[in-house]
Specification:
binds 1,3-dihydroxyacetonephosphate; 4-stranded parallel β-sheet; 312 residues; binds iron/sulfur cluster; single chain
Length: 312
């Protein structure tokens, strides 16, 4: 790391102590952010950490819905995000007003709404329960019998859960712009180059890609799967930041990013808006801060807490 890079890390760590802050980072963050974070994980692990922390400030290196989730479960903390524009295409695909309109137009279905955590606080406030890719199967399996399920917003995760549980669900037609860029052909081509490699894919990928995978799982489960597998090589079909953590924590194995038709790996443009400089600035200024109207936060908290209790 350059002298300036080292100075920047020192600055961040000094501000962290001064603010009594905790730095939480998602698995898709850049290596420099992951290396100085107090905890790096998937959406589920990060939600637990945010709910349990004693820090006064949570600096959330991830995207907006993740920072909102931290605020929902830890309302007395100051939650800051390095870049407020770090959004999520999946979350954007299900605006709360559209969801409410749909529910109003389909009252006879009396839907039980399961919302993937990649959605706004306002959608969480409408939902009955939240799930992540790490616990979606468990959450769907614990849905009261006889209820019609509406699963929002990711149709790919939803169809994967239906395959795993055989529970019928109506699916919102949202998707992640990063994961739908992987194709059957792009993964087939890289498999020809690494014929011994296991293919590990995130459930936000399309069914055509999931069918090629040896394992479909959340980003956290990717770590334990690759660590415990007898295989030495893995093609990782998710956002490229995941390879930072895999290479750090499973250094004796080889990780190849899953390519798309256009690119040898896939970055989430929102996740990659966060930088060390912006992390330093948000700790220094306590801005941009995540704020949620209290009536929405309280409703959203009950669906998030239901998830946390169900997935213990
Ligand atoms: P995980 O919860 O598996 O980390 O996924 C979050 C996400 O945004 C995937 O695109
Ligand atoms: Fe959202 Fe996709 Fe980025 Fe995950 S990778 S934060 S689902 S846009």
């Amino acid at each position: 790391m350059s002298a300036t890079g080292k100075d920047l890390v020192e600055e961040v760590l000094a501000l962290k102590r001064e603010r009594n802050a905790v730095i939480l980072a998602h698995n898709y963050q850049t290596a420099d952010i992951q290396e100085l974070a107090d905890f790096v994980g998937d959406s589920l692990g990060l939600s637990y950490k945010a709910a349990e922390t004693n820090a006064d400030v949570i600096a959330f290196c991830g995207v907006h819905f993740m920072g909102e989730t931290a605020k929902i479960v830890s309302p007395s903390k100051t939650v800051v995000l390095p870049d407020l524009d770090a959004g999520c295409s999946l979350s954007d695909s299900c605006p709360a007003e559209k969801l409410q309109e749909f529910l109003d137009a389909n009252r006879e279905k009396n839907y039980y709404v399961i919302a993937y955590i990649n959605c706004s606080a306002a959608v969480k406030a409408i939902a009955d329960v939240i799930c992540t890719s790490g616990n979606a199967v468990k959450i769907v399996e614990s849905t009261p019998a006889g209820r019609n399920i509406l699963f929002v917003p990711d149709q790919n995760l939803g169809s994967w859960v239906m395959e795993k549980t055989s529970r019928p669900m109506d699916l919102w037609r949202g998707s992640c712009y990063v994961h739908v860029e992987f194709t059957r052909d792009s993964i087939d081509r890289i498999r020809e180059q690494y014929p011994e490699a296991r293919v590990v894919a995130h459930p936000e990928c399309t069914q055509a890609v999931r069918l090629l995978a040896d394992e479909v799982c959340s980003t956290e489960k990717m770590i334990s799967y690759c660590r415990n597998s007898p295989a030495r090589e893995f093609i990782i079909v998710t956002e490229s930041g995941m390879l930072n953590r895999l290479r750090r924590e499973v250094p004796d194995k080889i990780f190849v990013p899953g390519p798309t038709e256009l690119c040898s790996c896939s970055d989430c443009r929102y996740m990659k808006l966060n930088t060390l400089e912006k992390l330093r600035d948000c700790l220094a200024n306590l801005q941009p801060e995540i704020l949620i109207p209290e009536d929405i936060r309280v409703k959203a908290e009950s669906s998030v807490r239901r998830m946390l209790e169900l997935s213990r």
